[in-house]
Amino acid sequence: MAMAAGIDGISFYSSQYFVDLRKLADARGVDPAKYAEGLGQLSMGVVPPDEDVITLGASAAAPLVSRYQADEFDIVMFATESGVDESKAGAIYIRHLLGLSRECRVVELKQACYSSTVGLQLALSYVRAHPNRKVLLVASDIARYGLGTPGEPTQGCGAVAMVVSMQPRVLVVDSPSGYYTEDVMDFWRPCYSNEAFVDGKFSAKLYLATLEHTWNAYVRKSGLKFEDHDRFCYHLPFSRMAEKAHARLAAGVGSIVNGANRSGEDPPGLSVDPRIADGLIYNRVTGNSYSASLYLGLTSLLDNSREDLGGKRIGFFSYGSGCSAEFYSGTVSTGYRSQLFVEEHHQHLQRRTELSVIDYEKMFQFRLPTDGGNYPTPNYRTGRFRFAGLVNHKRIYGEAEATAARVSPHVGINGAAAAISGQELRTHDR
Ligand code: HMG
Question: For atom 58 of ligand 1, which residue has the closest CA?
Fold first, then answer.
């Protein structure tokens, strides 16, 4: 077993519902090829009213943490840009739902899609200093742009949980990395808005420009070359973005390193390179999961690669609008396959329920009242955990079966909500 810092386990969860992007294209009067080929996306995950980033994150982490003792984790880090509270860290709910020790640090991290990577780097530093301890890092997001907007087909949702330790049975993360930050407005979501604002074309340009900056810094510090990497994982707002980024890096690597390839033109002969193809499989059907998306790509690569990747080096590009970015690499641990959740992940995606565009629109617009009353959420299919409703402005979470049973019968998305009692549901540690 390697004695270096890295990822000891990784698992993901998206929602139980999706929209087929061919049907969305029909509904919006768009050629379906634009979404399938132009964006490289087939479907997008949609959260029902009783899922949020907390339940997505806790459901992603549950199978993973069940392999560890509850008191092995010193920190639960929660990376999101879809937070449910301006003050309380989502990590507090997640630690509670997972039954982890209360002798634990908790924090929520934000910097658009990049926060998971800064979380990973902080967690690596922590375990290097405390080699017998572990950090649970959960990245969870719901991408929302608004009905009928150009960003709509790039929506999605998902969460990835990772255990960071000095005995990494999945991936040893290499140290140097190249990073870059700039104050720009390519994508942002003010506190008063439920949907992001985005300058889409500008954001894609920045993504590629920061790839160049971070790659240059990474190469300078590590001395590694493009050919030294067997696979690449890129942040995945939509899979075609990663294909473009990779083609840019592959075709222009010499000129990128020399700082000469700044034209913004795509290199000729764009096709899905086998060095990235397996990493795109999950994202094509879940859509963007912001902070989780790069690590959903890693999960997809590890789960779906026919070749044993043990000993192979993977390059990672993390981009978060606003913006900050990082390029780093890691080496897959020998025997990593026994740590994966391949069956569970495949079954989860296969068992999702398709929504009509009309039902998706209703789910998208659903809001619980915010007047402090008792409002249960309608009862849909969720992961292991469920957001059961609001009681006196407090969010109520619990095991899906227990909370659904209390709130049932199914009240429907437009239906009347029966009152729930905060005492009956899990609002705090007992
Ligand atoms: P758009 O303007 O509707 O699309 O929005 P378009 O006209 O640029 O078309 C998209 C592609 O489809 C183009 O390909 C078209 O040619 C092609 P390209 O020229 O770029 O290679 N196309 C077709 N292909 C086949 N058949 C057809 C057809 N028609 C057109 N019939 C945009 C696209 C991505 C801008 C929009 O969806 C958007 O704003 N999305 C959200 C922003 C985004 O995802 N940005 C990515 C980089 S920023 C990032 O990654 C950070 C982020 O994750 C947030 C965070 O950090 O938290 C977003």
Answer: 237
Q: How would you classify the pairing of strands 231-234 and 313-320? A: parallel
Nearest to 158 by CA among 61, 277, 34: 61
Token look-up 């087909």 returns 153
Instruction: Report the candidate in 223, 264, 228 with the shortest Cα–Cα distance to residue 245.
Output: 264
The whole-number pLDDT of residue 271 equals 58
Q: 10 Å Cβ neighbour count for 335?
A: 12
Burial-class residue 258 by CB neighbours within 10 Å (0-12, 13-18, 19+): exposed
Q: Distance between CA atoms of 207 and 219, rounded to whole angstroms?
A: 18
- Kindly tell me the burial class for residue 365, based on how many C-beta atoms sit within 10 Å of its own C-beta (0-12, 13-18, 19 or more): exposed
Label residues 162-197 b or e (16+ Cβ within 10 Å = b): bbbbbbbbbbbbbebbbbbeeebebbebeeeeebbe
pLDDT above 60 (res 259): no
For 156-170, what is each residue's pLDDT tens digit?
999 999 999 999 999
Q: How do residues 80-104 score in pLDDT, each as one tens digit?
A: 999 999 999 999 999 999 999 999 9
Give the integer Cα–Cα distance in Å for 298 and 284. 14
Q: Going by CA atoms, what residue is nearest to atom 42 of ligand 1?
A: 200
CB-based burial, 81-95: b 16+ in 10 Å, e otherwise: bbbeeeeebbbbbbb
Give residue 269 CA to ligand 1 midpoint distance, Å.
19
Residue among 34, 115, 198, 211 to mutate when testing ligand 1 (max atoms within 8 A of CB): 34
What does DSSP say about strands 73-79 and 313-320: parallel, antiparallel, or unpaired?
Answer: unpaired
Q: Which ranges of 305-335 does DSSP label H, i.e. alpha helix?
A: none
Instruction: State yes or no: pLDDT of 406 exceeds 80.
Output: no
